[in-house]
Amino acid sequence: MDWKTTQPAADAFKDRVILVTGAGQGIGQAAALALAGAGATVVLMGRNEKKLAKVYDAIEAAGGPRPAAVPMDLAKAGETELAQLGMVLSKEFGRLDGILHAANGFAHLSPLANQKLDEWMEQFRVNVAAPFAMTRALMPLLAESPDAAVLVLGEHHGLEPKAFWGGYAVSKAAQHTWVTIAADEWDKQENLRINLLVPGPIHSPFRTKTHPAEAWSTLPQIADIVPAILYWLGPQSRGRSGQVLRFDASET
């Protein structure tokens, strides 16, 4: 089965509750809309309330299950906020069947000599520490789900580091280590899985920021990766955990 192009069955996510971080734009936004279209109740998380509101309205206009919006800045969120998130989701929905960690912390491209401690710390917090802590805080809900999936969006410079990517690439490399450890610890829990999906070069707001002169028409579009996201968050991927999935690679 080619997970990159497989379309989910109708209502594949019916009655499932999926949390999407970075849901206000880019891949997170597209995934949230597609998940709702497949029947999921989507919890939208992001820093910008106006952007979340637009996605919320788009889901309702398309007739999807009524979503929820949770404004949160992962660069600032602490244990208290994450614990409260778990209580809110438990009270409002009584379940959680998946998390898409699509939020992306990025400072800028520069030589290591010009990068600052605070920039590294914020990127680590958004890309690794906050997703880890959020997943841990929500584990009681995930563990109760009959089929729970956590999908982390990586970046290919985390696997193939290059000059000028500095703290960002290092934080993205750390995602792989976290996913590997979590998958190993969850090995005996057949209802839980976690994987790392690396989009590769794709036309997105992030890619536009890092490669402003690039001809975007030569790149895969955000819509192209959505089926892969739904596959790894949905029932078709059950039993597959701890994998690094290269969307830009030839293997399936």
From TrEMBL:
Gene Ontology molecular function: any one: oxidoreductase activity
Keywords, ordered alphabetically: Oxidoreductase
Pfam family, one: adh_short
Domain of life: Bacteria
Gene3D superfamilies found in the cross-reference section: NAD(P)-binding Rossmann-like Domain
InterPro entries: NAD(P)-bd_dom_sf, SDR_fam
Any single Gene Ontology cellular-component annotation: membrane
Family as reported in the entry's similarity comment: Belongs to the short-chain dehydrogenases/reductases (SDR) family.
Protein name: NAD(P)-dependent dehydrogenase (Short-subunit alcohol dehydrogenase family)
Organism name: Silvimonas terrae
